[in-house]
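Final report, Chapter 2: Outcomes

The project's central promise was a pipeline that accepts a single protein chain and returns its three-dimensional structure in a standardized token representation, suitable for archiving and comparison. That pipeline is now operational. To close this chapter, we reproduce one record exactly as it appears in the project archive, with the input sequence first and the structure output second.
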Amino acid sequence: MKKTYTGFFIGASSLCVLFIIFLASGLWKRFFYPPEDEKIRTRIVTPTEAGSSSGSGQAGQRRWEDSLSTKIPLENSEILIAVINRESEEGNTEEQFAAYINAAAPEKGIFITFIGYEAQSGRYRRMWSEPTAASHVETISLSIQDLIGDRNNCVIVTGMNDQNEHTMTVFRKNPNHAQDQAFNKIIELHIDGSIIIQESGRSLAYQQGLTSGQSFNIAAYNHDNTSDNILDQIETIYSYNSSADQYEQIRVTRIPGSQIEQQRLRELLSGTPGVFENFINDLWYYVSPQGTIDSRQYIYFDPSGREIIFFGEEAQQVFHWQSSTHTRYGLYVRSQNISISTLLRSIDIELESLDSIRLRVNEDVRLPITVSTTWDGSYRRAGTINQEKPASRIMPAVDAHYDSIWGRIQFFNTGEYTISSGGTIKKGYYVFYRVSENNLLELRPDGGNNRPEDRMVYRIEVSANAALNLSRVRIGNTGIQDMLEPPVTLTPVN
């Protein structure tokens, strides 16, 4: 009898342990609820590029983030590209917009579908699908915004097509709630220039939910076919017409571009791989609307190192250059912050003159973080700043040799460096730049993983014999912080 009780006690204890593991592991959720009904945290997911060359728009050449998923599976031939979640109007479920491409017919471009919760069946299902004007997978961006001002968010799909034109397709919820047409297409553009949503301030009453706000206009910039100057553009403004529930053209303006030698322009804008990238491979300072150079805000493009450095408001941000696509006026670049992987930037770079470019930067933030600096505007090549502020001139690359406790260090004007010591050679990339009144040097050794700890930043003080005294620092949102490491002296070698 004693053995029977002992066996029963051991069996019961084992069952209790297994039940606890079952609860702790979360398997009970999958047991009682189908996977398609599981809640997913609100997020925006966009494609991540595997390579560094400009893509052809074929989905098979890309790899996607592991978290890219929908509430219900797509068809076998449909490849998911991007997903954006939002809360339903009732506030008790989530809805999804998903961009996808049909692998069996990639020439048909990119589609968008709406996945909503159906109360009658108690399951998620696809409510609606429509094609968009975009076809290049690596350029796709999804966003939700109240363009009209009535708090009914529009779904905005931007990207590029096979003609390397910028595209924008905007859908708005059908006020009639038709089952077969849940959303209306209120504007679709494909332009060889750029497309901008002209946001304007809305009243405090709108912010508090008391009144509606004014609708935003959309501006499109196209090549002026009647002009011999490649840089001449036509600005077309579209405004929302509530009666037609459509955006309609309201104004066309010709914008003259810079008069530059046309043969040089054609070379830069030919689309030949590497030509425009080499042109922007430099340090560029922001030009204010008044035409003055602001050395406190700059961008450094490093296409060979696949990096873009943004500096503004005393903080430096480094982005990985994911992909680039040639446009009629320059280059469209997708980039990702190396420290905050949820912060993506799309950069539309247009040629203004042989020493200036214009940027339109779109932030794709997948977490509630604040990005306060505005990067849109004109930028001038750093070499021209010497004309206005000789004391603040600093070249990002030099050609020089120095001796140090590290060994013999050589800087090349290509942005590369080598350190020779004891028969070994270490290589990497560097950049000289200026923050307020501080001259800085950043070293990025080969073999790193582009993590912040793999990058070394030094404050530079120049002594009487032209030696460089380096003090290790860290740059962050609070400014420059000393690392309190022993200083290193670089002595020039004649």
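Archive annotation: The first strand starts at residue 44 and ends at 45.
This record, like all others produced under the grant, will remain available to the consortium after the project formally closes.
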